[in-house]
Amino acid sequence: MKSRIFLIGFMGSGKTTLGKRLARRMGYTFADMDQEIEDTSGMTIPGIFREHGEEVFRKWERDILLELCKREKLIIATGGGAPCHSDLMDLMTACGLTVYLELPPEILKDRLLHARVERPLIKGKNEEELLDYIQITLEKREVYYRRAELIVEGVSPSLDALVAALKSF
Ligand code: S3P
Question: Where are the alpha helices (DSSP H) in 27-53?
Answer without folding.
Answer: 33-41, 45-52
